[in-house]
Amino acid sequence: MQFGYFDDARKEYVITTPATPYPWINYLGSKDFFSLISNTGGGYSFYKDAKLRRITRFRYNNVPLDLGGGRYYYINDGKEVWSPGYAPVKKELERYECRHGMGYTKITGEKNHIETEITFFVPLDFNGEVHKVVIKNTGNSNKNITLFSFIEWCLWNALDDQTNFQRNLNTGEVEIEGSVIYHKTEYKERRDHYAFFSVNAPTAGFDSDRESFLGTYNGFQNPDAVLEGKSKNSVADGWSPIASHSLELSLDPGETREYVFILGYVENDLEDKWKLKNVINKTKAYRMMEEFSTAEKADGALKKLADYWEDLLSGYTLVSRDEKLNRMVNIWNQYQCMVTFNLSRSASYFESGIGRGMGFRDSNQDLLGFLHQVPDRARERIIDLASTQLEDGGAYHQYQPLTKRGNDEVGGNFNDDPLWLILAVAAYVKETGDCGILNVSTPYDNDESKAAPLADHLKRAFDHVIHNLGPHGLPLIGRADWNDCLNLNCFSLEPGESFQTTTSKDGRVAESVMIAGMFVYIGKEYAALMKKTGNETEGLRAEKEVHEMEEIIMKYGYDGEWFLRAYDDFGRKVGSRECKEGRIFIESQGLCIMGGLGLSDGKAVNALDAVEERLGTKYGLVLNNPAFTKYYVEYGEISTYPEGYKENAGIFCHNNAWIMCAEAVVGRGDKAFDYYTRIAPAYTEEYSEIHRMEPYVYSQMIAGKDAKRFGEAKNSWLTGTASWNFVAITQYILGIKPDYDGILIDPAIPKEWDTYQVTRKFRGDIYRITVNNPNHVSKGIERMSVDGKEIVSAVIPFAGDGRVHEVIVTMG
């Protein structure tokens, strides 16, 4: 069942009913100011940091769903009260439409011959959210209505806002000036920052106190002021400050009115005299309001936003005979990659914006999907991440985006984290040719006295694995590897010892075959990068260490038909035929084969066959099988989930991409693309009532075959699934991969494909690459030409002339 449709020409998903299976959201913002907005206007806004600079309030896990706060509009037309976006009043509309586009959302509602269209967006380089409201009388008689706006202020720190009521209910402070309501709570004790909500027209009234506007025991769906048709002109003094305007309109038949509302944030660096006067400096706010003083100015900013996204999405474009594949590659997958770049895992409808900042592992992997769009910002992100690294090569697992400081509460000891930095830097250098990044002086733990060139950070990340090996010579898993829930060092149980009597011991020895596979895969990238930048000695050393790890994996990490997952703290196999539950895991199969293990003797193919046989489902590959049916204290959190959910045999979409890549490595393009279509959002649209999440972006997890709600997704938007699936389809399946000296062409496609064309921007040049498959093979290149001249290498040499180059590839 579908709840909307793709409008590819406009790069929009059009939702045709407010009753979607779950709130379907979009993200507004591209740099510092961000907003989450659902298809009925729910969500919130923040500046840089969803925890420390939360601007509007939102209540997660609310009842009713998605009525925890938002940017709400109400219309009192004399007969009844309704909302153009359906919520929060929930009166049935005669027409409803929500268009989620690239950085904007347009919601249209019509009732009683009043059509209201609201376009929400965050303009480029603007610290605020703009709402362009267009109201039209579609009837044959005059209409007298009152339009009400509404937002609720968060008192900046989202965690404190939700917990410290004894203080916060006394601190709310606002200021009203004309059609502007200023939120200046706590500005006196901190730097001079404030927010405002304005409209570019005279108002009939306002409210800034929530209880006055709603009524003490009313909800968002039935505010007193709206029901009465008149604002209370309340001024908040403590309690819960809000911002609401009322505008009285008289519309002739066919008449249209346009308004611009601005939700803005201002941060001043002022002398103390402003604070001593207890007055905020509104100069920046005035400029922001003037910037969007008319609807025409808002339209101009929307056009600039559209041009911005058109340019970002033009870096990699595909023309194929598969409409769904085209929209994923050209529009939605790249869009989601940019959103994950901006937010990592910090703020979605599944992440509160409080518990997680920027993930070290997460952000390094996310970079793989967006660096071709914004290489300069990718460079900045790499330095930010490396600056949180620890001197021993380890890393804080997370850092706060506002302070860029490592999160001590989460700490480090996730032993896969350091390697992802190497992969990110190698990918960056391949994309840009900027080897100079390795010479950038970069601090450890944000301490400039401990700064060293970025190359030193990579060496310590590489050596962090070598310095933390277990009894078999495999890498120690630490607190966890990529799978945070596989906690093999949580407890140590001796034979016959019960959980109640166990105590933690020093000298954890649990080992990860997955990290070992990563070390081989990423270690080869490290060695190549060192050689490319003139450090032949380090490159050869790295190759030697990688080769030794390859031998160890094949001796201790292969279980006869597939790769083991790990060894626990007692040296017992995890992910083995010997295990009753959790006999096979997906992660090590993908990463070991991506690293080239088992290719020459058929072991890689055997492992991939086992993946399909044991992990395959119509909705994707489950993470492990059989699912854990009871709690295993020695495995930790993974066994706490019910069967089929999250890490316990759920379909973890992130690592499905590794299997796509692995299938491409062994040359099975049909299977690689088959796996791609099982989880790619555009292909799930037809069963949205089962999938539930947005049909235009990836989710982190889909309930597996053991789950009671098989096929149901959760945790959409902010997931490494976005970047890895973009890598899988563009670099491994379509086979257009940036390399140090040019673009490597190495497709692994379905045999039935005849042809496709990719236009790829690369270091200022444009390469128009046409791949023909007359012999209907999955892998292999018979010949290739660049600008009419045949070349022997599979790498298109980088021209560096800023021109368009025609590349013809014939597979065979």
Automatic annotation (TrEMBL):
Keywords of this entry: Glycosyltransferase, Transferase
Taxonomic superkingdom: Bacteria
Domain Glycosyl hydrolase 94 catalytic: 308-735
GO MF annotation terms: carbohydrate binding; glycosyltransferase activity
One BP term from GO: carbohydrate metabolic process
Alphabetical list of Pfam families matching this protein: GH94_b-supersand, Glyco_hydro_94
CDD domains reported for this sequence: GH94N_CBP_like
Domain Glycosyl hydrolase 94 supersandwich: 11-284
InterPro entries: 6-hairpin_glycosidase_sf, 6hp_glycosidase-like_sf, Gal_mutarotase_sf_dom, GH65_N, GH94_catalytic, GH94_Enzymes, GH94N_CBP, Glyco_hydrolase_94_b-supersand
Name recorded for this polypeptide: Cellobiose phosphorylase
Organism of derivation: Anaerocolumna xylanovorans DSM 12503
